[in-house]
């Protein structure tokens, strides 16, 4: 019976292998998922330092943006009653812990075991309450940002938008397989999506306004300048796509897809940008940057073209 099961399993795996190898190269698509996520319009509102999304709309000027975020911070509710309640719970925890000394009187093994459990529960409760205080203080000071729960919801929405667009493009262009060509992040790199001082300060130094202003066309007013409008977008991708640890390596482990397949990143981002009513002129710059980066990653020479931007 076992031999029959083994033969059946090997035969089944053989069929699967044959079906995979039967896919033609023109049925395979590739996409740099990391770049797609970083180029999502909602990422222009993500603060990498404080880990949260700004609660403002797209398209504001720099002055309007800072005025609105300042107003939001000033409108933070007074949560002193809530903090006082938590502090009272903390005081009760400390008071209860002081009473644990009674267990040492005529202590036996059973009493000591019970004491150890009580101490563990007490310190766990203390940490929980202190974390709540830190979290409330952080949210009050950063009321211009989404809460941790809201932040995770928006991240899920971003991923959903990208994957829906991938499925649409794959169906429209008749791709059987879509491969992710993103550079693998080292397993030692610690990702952090929690909005709180408890969990650190995120990645300071990433200026989200590079992307926000770009999408709002605030920095595309003078296309005749020597610095092309794609420069801010390239800077944004350089800052967001690669963890600092990867940038220290002497060589980069990419691309993961060495040959074959057609990149659908441009098509996917076009669908996402249309969904959020981003102007075509902005998408054209995005598309040109995607092409440049993909050419560099594949080892191809970047074509030097004069791009005319219609604003």
Can you walk through the features of this model?
This protein is mostly helical. The protein has eleven helices and five strands; from the N terminus they run αβαββααααβαααβαα. It has helices at residues 2-21, 33-38, 62-74, 80-98, 109-141, 148-172, 209-215, 230-241, 244-247, 265-275, 280-297, and strands spanning 28-31, 46-47, 52-53, 177-180, 262-263. It has a three-stranded parallel β-sheet with strand order 4-1-5, with no helix packed on it. The radius of gyration is 27 Å and the shape is elongated.
The fraction of residues in strands falls at under 5%
Count every beta strand, where a strand is a DSSP E run of 2 or more residues. 5
| Shape descriptor | elongated
What distance separates the N and C termini? 72 Å
Main beta sheet strand tally, sense and closure: 3 strands, parallel
Q: What low-confidence regions span 5 or more consecutive residues with pLDDT below 50? A: 3-21, 186-201, 245-255, 304-311
In N-to-C order, the SSE pattern is HEHEEHHHHEHHHEHH
Annotate the secondary structure layout.
Elements: H1 2-21, E1 28-31, H2 33-38, E2 46-47, E3 52-53, H3 62-74, H4 80-98, H5 109-141, H6 148-172, E4 177-180, H7 209-215, H8 230-241, H9 244-247, E5 262-263, H10 265-275, H11 280-297
Parallel strand pairs: 1-4, 1-5
Antiparallel strand pairs: 2-3
Helix pairs in contact: 4-5, 6-10, 10-11
Summarize the structure.
With 311 residues, the chain is mostly helical. It has helices at residues 2-21, 33-38, 62-74, 80-98, 109-141, 148-172, 209-215, 230-241, 244-247, 265-275, 280-297; strands at residues 28-31, 46-47, 52-53, 177-180, 262-263. A 3-stranded parallel β-sheet has the order 4-1-5, with no helix packed on it. Strands 2-3 form a two-stranded antiparallel ribbon.
